[in-house]
Amino acid sequence: MTKIDKSKPVLVTGANGYVASWLVKKLLDEGITVHAAVRNPKDDKKISHLKAAAANSKGKIKFFAGDLLKPGSYKEAMEGCELVYHTASPFTMDVKDPQKELIAPAVNGTANVLNTANEVSSVLRVVVTSSCAAIYTDAIDTVNAPGGTITEEIWNTTASLDYQPYSYSKTLAEKKAWEIEKSQSQWDLVTINMSLVLGPPLNPAHATSESMNILKMIGGGELKMGAPKMGLGVVDVRDVADAHYMAGYTPKAKGRYITSAHDTDLLEMSEVLLPKYGDKYPLPKRAMPKWLLMLVGPMANKLFTRKYIKNNVNIPFHADNSKIKRDLGIKFLPLKQTMEDSFQVMIDEGIFKAK
């Protein structure tokens, strides 16, 4: 049981990221002082939305420079904090050198932040933004899990440097976090294991998350002939921010938390948008057959390898989210609201043009 003092500052690494921005807003709205660690505190385009959130809240924000690959670069920002949120990590599927672009920053960055926590005596709890990708690689893994559903007990054993290196990076980074946690007794560790995060970004002009690419596929016409029924989990970015907040300030919070609201697929995600947007935008209305994807998928998108298609298309995804509901009291937003709010931002930003 770890009770965090709300009068003390809180460190958020990667504070201007998609999830972190909503977390920072939540902390500020609760009247908390946020130590926001970002790559470049002088880049106003990337932090002005956080300054605006602070100006409209009871809390205060202080910016610090932090570099995942520079040991000790988070120490100044961490001083005096009882609670540390480590959210900074690369999220991209399209990489040339997975070891350099994904594995090293994810694993070494986690070690950097947690080793610094060992040196700063005020730290009592670290919340690490992990992923369901540390639990599974493909939808078939959830089918093959005990009871046909992934739980917090399960670790990803099917990703590698050559296959789904992003999932591999999240697995190695979270394992590194638990290894460092076990080597000390000063602070406890909680991880938030999110599925695909959607919902409106607070800084849409600079939203670079993989989530945006999936929305572009759905609404940009790429899938207008049909969407693959690719099994995956979806959760709203606002719920993920609440999950992080509760993980930090709930004394009994412990271990890993699957943070996934809906067991769904690409076609269902498109279908919930049809009533509101189907007349104006080239949304898919039917399933793309698996055999057709096997033929054209690898040519259309290098991530759609035959192995990937075989393991994910027409295969349901199932995740057990009962622990986070029970321990942290999280109630998830409906899929329709998440999809509509996400889609509307893309329209407002001029990314989607009406047909």
From TrEMBL:
The keyword Oxidoreductase applies. Keywords: Oxidoreductase. It holds the Pfam family Epimerase. One of its GO terms (molecular function) is dihydroflavanol 4-reductase activity. It is an enzyme of class 1 (oxidoreductase). The keyword Cell membrane does not apply. InterPro entries: Epimerase_deHydtase, NAD(P)-bd_dom_sf, NAD(P)_dehydrat-like. Its EC number is 1.1.1.219. This is Dihydroflavonol-4-reductase. It comes from Cyclobacterium qasimii M12-11B. The lineage of its organism: Bacteria, Pseudomonadati, Bacteroidota, Cytophagia, Cytophagales.
